[in-house]
## 1
Amino acid sequence: MSKLQQHWETVFKTKDTTQVSWYQEVPSTSLELVNTYARGKDTTILDVGGGDSHLPHSLVELGYTDITVLDISKAALSLSKSKFIESSSVKYVNTDILEYQSNQTIEVWHDRAVFHFLSKDSEKLRYKQKAIEYLQDDGVLLLATFYKAGGPTMCSGLEVCRHDQESILALFAPEFEIIISFVEKHITPSDKEQVFIWNVLKKKK
Ligand SMILES: C[S@@+](CC[C@H](N)C(=O)[O-])C[C@H]1O[C@@H](n2cnc3c(N)ncnc32)[C@H](O)[C@@H]1O
């Protein structure tokens, strides 16, 4: 098991996931963005580093039928899975996103607070290569990272690489274009403010 996987297994085995800094009772921005950019309820959606988020459950409630939750932590996926009575609309994949392999292409790729853990250029490039490989042409990448101007420098005890619109464009162009960028303030369960930047990127044909 890699050190990174060990870290996340420990987090999900020892912490109350409603008290972790990234917890959201309702992932409203994610839901709004999926609703805006999904072609229909059968859109193929990949939630990268989905953890124990409420997103897949909310998407199923809204009628989405093709959701894949990917996470490096088995414990996170078990927690998420245990909340479903019926989950035929949701698949779980336990892998590091940098090692992801699949026969399926994706229309909407969602990543909240995962990409910012990648610090090396080689890792960021590999992530982009995975998005190019698995996203359909015109597919969208909904990407939320801590913001360069004011976002935290650590998350879950790990250093993060903060971004802004320019750094995301520099990394993802020319294969992707940015449709919109906006800053969002997230209030953690311990009442601290975290500044995120969302970038919606479209894979060019
Ligand atoms: C800060 S949490 C965010 C969870 C979720 N996206 C949310 O917004 O509630 C980061 C998640 O990404 C997972 N993760 C971290 N690095 C990963 C990687 N390289 N590949 C896949 N999952 C990863 C962790 O296990 C954890 O569930």
## 2
Amino acid sequence: MDGERMFSLVKKLDFVRLSGTQGEKRASEIIRAECERLGVNADIETFATLDGVVSETKLEVTAPYIKSYSAAGYLRSASIDAELPLVYAEDGLEGNLCDVRGKAIILNNPVNKKNYAALIKAAPACVLTGDGDCFDREDESDLAPGMLRPSFADAFEERLCTVTLRKRDLFELISRGASSVRVKVVSRDTENTSRNVTAFIPGGELPQEIICFTAHMDSVRFSHGCYDNASGSAIMLEIMRHFALNPPRRSMRFIWTGSEERGLLGSRYYVEAHADEVARTCLNINLDLAGCAAGHEFAIVTGPKELTAYFDEMMKREGFAVETKTDIYSSDCVSYADKGVPAISIGRAGARGMSYIHDRRDTIDFVSAAALKKTASIAYTFARQIDAASEMPFERKIPEDIVKKIDEYLLRKETNKK
Ligand SMILES: [Zn+2]
């Protein structure tokens, strides 16, 4: 595993690669060209995503003082143009939401899949949330708008109007007791095209058994996503290079997914569109978060406990320090585990205050060739040994407690199961 070679690919991907944009498309073309340089044919598979555009957001406190604030409507927010009484609804507990119908409310937390149903029921006319930290410097940070994702918002007939402010401004509204706001949001739903890059190396001895690698190539708004996840993308290419030169016993699929940051859309599309292949897939090795110079190695098994034990024993024997556990991990591994394929996410967790994700501070400055090599060596060692195994040392089965967590994660109701 060549750290410098991986670092040079991270450098090539050092730009914003947001779902369904030219940036994501450019990344897919760079990765495809890298695959083809290794003599491995790669395809770009496109899929449609639901998106949104907010063309105007205005927010003005009208009582007990008058002041305008910069604000950003959530993508796929409802539109509004109204002056409304404003209530501070804290964390949106039942007691906070009992009398907010038709009013604007301030929430401490963003609007997401956890609180959306309760908010729809309470029916405020507008929800104000915050982004960042009171100590953010304006010239160093962005006002990220958030999104009412179709996965939770489209289950309801009504759509909330939801707006983000900087935390410092949101705190000012709270501390100065703002009681009335004029708010305008002009929002419309759109559709976009996102893409996965896929490559395949057929197995020499057990071609019908497939080991599938995933790494998402997209980033979030304002973020160059060098740590999350140009690094995982580069590691996956380096591992593919090894197997292109040293043909594996089992078949190997490599997927650089798009729109992971929008709710695992690329991998969810893939497992639906390629059900036959997924049925023959015995393991998913997912690479999401790596390369941060300061951090530690981790592995999360979204699958049977025997796989966790097998991996942990191997790492100790090989002299790697890896924090290993069985759990779900918010990444493309969930799409595979949901289809009954045991998954392992291998990565490097950044040290606090020395690494950043999901904002503009996720830059190449915090990524190193040495750190890339560490995670790559672990994933490579594991992949090589599991490919050499006479049979998979674990059952192709997801334990009940993990299935339950996946259902919760994917917002599946108990009654919809099976
Ligand atoms: Zn990620």
## 3
Amino acid sequence: MSENRTKINWFPGHMAKTMRLIAYEIRNVEAVAEIIDARIPYSSQNPNLRRACGRKPRIFILNKADLADEQLTREWIKLFTSKGYAAIALNGKKSSEKKKLVAALDSFVDDHVRKRANEKPRIMFVGVPNVGKSTVINMLLGQNIAKVENRPGVTRGKQWLSADRFELLDMPGVLWEKFSDMSSAYNLAYTGAIRDDVFDMEEVACSLLQELYTASPQALKTRLELEEEEQSTGYELLELVARQRGFLLRGGIPDTEKAAKAVLTDLRDGKFGRVTLEAPRW
Ligand SMILES: Nc1nc2c(ncn2[C@@H]2O[C@H](COP(=O)(O)OP(=O)(O)OP(=O)(O)O)[C@@H](O)[C@H]2O)c(=O)[nH]1
Ligand SMILES: [Mg+2]
């Protein structure tokens, strides 16, 4: 599918600056927590972070697990563990999951991190934009100190925050300069890691509907109340959404632009159910 996709690229100056900041600050931490999106655990890993973080121990936090398929999340965690990485699935918005997060960080620190005498371990939080880095930090702080908003590019500079057991370094989200694989770029666009105004929302929404239709036709048919025998392209599905929601232009033409926004918002809010777009792969 990826060959026909229009290229998406978003790497503004502030991201290049963040990459340099990460490379500099890595010497001031004992460990790295890479927050990835449980719906796209492959596409949301930043390939440049591997290099920038060098040999510093890394834990993967599969955040937004409340929006992902539970069975696939378990399989992804198994894969990370089998590769020797600490990994945990998390709903960063659910305060009752703090205990689980602290326990995972404690055991990660015990097993992998070289501690400084009488000092709290310093952990740098990195990841793609909008994945929930600041949310997870606020969970550890037990209060909303780091700025959180539902759009990419909210955190703009580094911020040190002190939790009971750890010193936390919140960082701006960062992507990479060129996507070698357009399906990763599309996955990041679906889930809200890329700013909506740098890609064609209709094209991306069509691609998402087509993917959901191919992956689980029955679930999408039920959600969109499609007839059993209907075979639909992404664009036909988008037109259907527009008609169903009454998004019509003059002359009764489906307003597919408005429908595209609604489809992407629905996915991000979990209205299509729990969806994981990538099977475990390394
Ligand atoms: N459903 C769900 N939403 C979450 C979760 N974690 C964070 N969010 C939401 O995701 C959005 C982005 O959260 P942030 O914490 O600002 O993300 P960030 O990674 O710090 O973003 P940048 O600073 O822009 O890179 C907010 O609307 C959060 O409420 C989660 O586990 N589940
Ligand atoms: Mg942030």
## 4
Amino acid sequence: MEPNKPRIAVIFATAQGSTREIAQYIGDDLANRGAQVEVADVEHAPELSRFDAVVLGSAVHNMDYLPAAGEFVRHHHDALADRDVWMFSVGVSAALRGPIGRRIAQRVPERIAALRDSIGARDFHAFAGHYERTGVSLRARLRHRLLGGGRFGDLRDWAAIAAWTRTIAEALRLPQPQTSVIHP
Ligand SMILES: Cc1cc2nc3c(=O)[nH]c(=O)nc-3n(C[C@H](O)[C@H](O)[C@H](O)COP(=O)(O)O)c2cc1C
């Protein structure tokens, strides 16, 4: 690894792939600004002692990080607590709209907040992910709609992801990129 360039590990847990694409985009964007970046899923995470900072993201299932991501935080607690860590989640509630939906969207699920606080993460952001109609019961779909989630499909907001990545780059004093990274 080259000296003086921040070394960043972008680590993710995904069930259906949308979190992987977000993690890859964040990694590409930070690398495009001159950081030394490795992107890996939690099962194949690199040794954290080689990195200055960590970006950790997981899909949300049942108002929690995926079990492998929670396990990763508990297992690497000390190394994470010693580093600058940015955390994100990918779920459908971040896409909720309307007065009730927006309030729900802003609430960080308790178990995710506990993980965040256990390592003193610098920041946490909830991104909208995929919401597929197939396999979701009529009851669940109605509940979703009532809470302000009228849309289905790929709900990812790449402008929001790019803006959050920029805050990481600024905190690590990375230079402005010459070109921008294209999202999937
Ligand atoms: C079994 C299951 C449970 C889910 N539970 C939640 C939840 O509690 N909150 C939420 O916001 N999204 C929830 N979601 C939505 C997913 O997190 C969302 O679709 C996300 O894009 C999945 O990311 P992935 O493609 O990386 O797996 C759930 C999805 C599934 C399949």
